[in-house]
From TrEMBL, chains A, B:
Residues 5-65 form the HTH tetR-type domain. This is Transcriptional regulator, TetR family. It comes from Bacillus thermotolerans. PROSITE patterns: HTH_TETR_1, HTH_TETR_2. It comes from the Bacteria. InterPro entries: DNA-bd_HTH_TetR-type_CS, Homeodomain-like_sf, HTH-type_TetR-like_transc_reg, HTH_TetR. The keyword Transcription applies. Coiled coil: none annotated. One of its GO terms (molecular function) is transcription cis-regulatory region binding.
DNA sequence: AATGATTTATTTATCAATCAATAAATAAGA
DNA sequence: TCTTATTTATTGATTGATAAATAAATCATT
């Protein structure tokens, strides 16, 4: 029988796709449990409530994006382009996670909103620092633009409006 | 006693703020009814279901943003700046409506998503056309960037991260 | 103008469904 | 046997929605 940590891991993994596809409110703990091959009440053995489960899922998804940017090391004049490509790659390999992260700001649960706030701030700060260290002028503005582009890509994906991203990513 | 259309109007008006403040799923028809000074079932006398009510609310909010841009007439070299200022003004005068529109893409109700898609497309097309007619190069890309900035402002507002919008709006 | 009939507006009461969460019971392994 | 892992059974709370009842307004007729 699978060890406790394994089961917890599986639940988080499956919850990512359930939350991503249905959104926080339409995703039920029963669905997550079913996907993970576990009974619904057993989810609450690992997470105090639905909110805590979602936070764990967000940490997982955010972490992947954070790590993707963190490990990039390119010369200043290619940094933004390289990071842009890296982001596009994450979107392809972990589409659900990225879309979920970029839509999380719309969840009106106070605890979640605060958590999401911290995660966005962490990403923004690390982007700013990276750009600043690379000697890129207006590092913060560039970081903000980077996030704004991510949001735009998400809306284009979710609403199936590819026109919105035609030519996006060509420059900074 | 208020005429039928008046009541419907009042319900939409109050529903805007309820939906904006609580989000689609956490907003209940009972709350909307209470704010409008009406009983909960009576809301269903005007709208077939919660979804239809929300669509009406979205039309109202989107319409305001659309009209704001539509009536702007400025020389090409000042158009984007003028429109940016106009948008900032709408955010101040009708904050709830703007934030709601910019977050609507995260609602996972199929009917709503399709409606939101059409509204976003309408705005994007009209922005593109306006920029194109003004002789602005890369009109579509500019329109997309405009929307992306709106999304960024929304996230900054909702998550209380003013750093994200420091310096945003200074250029195109 | 007063009265009664008829339609329109609005409420009370309630249903059926869903869901997160708890508690108690059982199975498995050490 | 004792602990850990997991399930069954159940609950309490919400919520969108419906149906039946009431009140208010409108209108026709005397």
């Amino acid at each position: 029988m699978a060890a406790r940590e394994d089961k917890k891991e599986i639940i988080i993994e499956k919850a990512v796709s359930v939350f991503a596809q249905r959104g926080y409110y339409k995703a039920t703990t029963a669905m997550v449990a079913k996907e993970a091959g576990v009974t619904q009440p057993y989810v609450f053995h690992f997470f105090a409530n639905k909110e805590e489960l979602f936070k764990a899922v967000m940490d997982r998804a955010f972490g992947r994006i954070y790590d993707t940017f963190a490990k990039i090391d390119a010369p200043a004049d290619q940094l933004i382009e390289t990071m842009g490509h890296a982001f596009e790659e994450v979107i392809q390999t972990h589409r659900d996670e990225v879309l979920m992260v970029m839509q999380a700001h719309a969840i009106s649960e106070e605890g979640i909103r605060e958590h999401v706030r911290k995660l966005f701030k962490t990403i923004f700060d690390s982007l700013s620092l990276k750009f600043e260290r690379a000697g890129i002028p207006e590092a913060e503005k560039t970081a903000a633009h980077f996030i704004g582009t991510g949001l735009l890509i998400t809306v284009a994906e979710v609403l199936d409006l590819p026109q919105l991203t035609k030519g996006v990513g060509d420059d900074g």
